[in-house]
Amino acid sequence: MRKSQQQKPLLRVLAGEVLPVAPWWLMRQAGRYLPEYRQLRGRAGDFVAFCLDPALAAEATMQPLRRYGMDAAILFSDILMVPYALGQKLCFVEGEGPVLEPVDSAEGLSRLERDAFLFRLEGVFEAARRVASDLGPKQALIGFAGAPWTVAVYMVEGGASHDFRRVKIWAYRDPAGFAALVELLQEATIAFLCGQIEAGVEAVQLFDSWAGILSEAAFVRWVIEPTARIVAVLKARYPHVPIIGFPRGAGALYERYVSLTGVDAIGCDTALPVSYARESLQRLVPVQGNLDPVMLLAGEEAFREAVWRLWRILGKGPYIFNLGHGVLPETPPHAIASLAALL
Q1: Is the pTM of this model over 0.90?
Q2: For residue range 256-285, what is the model confidence (pLDDT) as tens digits?
Q3: Is residue 65 part of a domain?
Q4: Which residues lie across from 291 on neighbouring strands?
């Protein structure tokens, strides 16, 4: 590891060090709760164009660091850049979220394109290069991707879902056909993360936001196994780049996820008991998380004790402070400032 990296608190903890002060960053730390972000978003046109504009994406990445001084920037992008780059039609509708042309069969899978994949993502890589050159000497740059299962959920459902019926039916009824989609996403995710690493990111996080909706056997097949293959390839190519896994909602399967995927650190969701994270996970890898984002809407008095409780329980081991999910759009900016003062 380069000397400059060794000075960065986030990377030191990801390597297993226990620091007297926990490094911190927040999922969705760049976003609608910031007035400067909303101004930037107004200049961008549609959201896909925003993510692919290097200047705008780099600026969005840096905005929270200028305000609050987090120990890491997470590259401004979206997990659905992968299906977009594979040629799936994608748009973001205000108040509704992402809308995709569903891919729920072998015929839909055949319409996806692989040849222009990296070319379509060049704006993301250029944004990473710009941010990497703009960070302070102790600030790290995190890249990310959606894990194959979670990205497949959006691709098959055509957007957000209440019951995940379409994707589960395909996975249960035609596991071989569904596996073809997951394998494609596995390879695309590897290529996407490799491109980010080559552009300057120093750690990566795999977001598996819908990991918790699966049965135990399906969790092993569609969450653990593809993640383990991605981790193995990245570690072989970039052994110095740590990988954080975030299988939101995995509950009692968190420990198996850590043991079988090979991730270097684990992000804990809000519902995961902190005592479980300490006793079952932190003995294996560094732990990240897991303040409830809603706490930041309730005022400093409400979240101060929760922050100190996390530190008292997890601070004796390698620990990165974060939320259990992303910053909510209605979060007042001064709440993050109060949080920063505590950290």
Answers
A1: yes
A2: 999 999 999 999 999 999 999 999 999 999
A3: yes
A4: 323
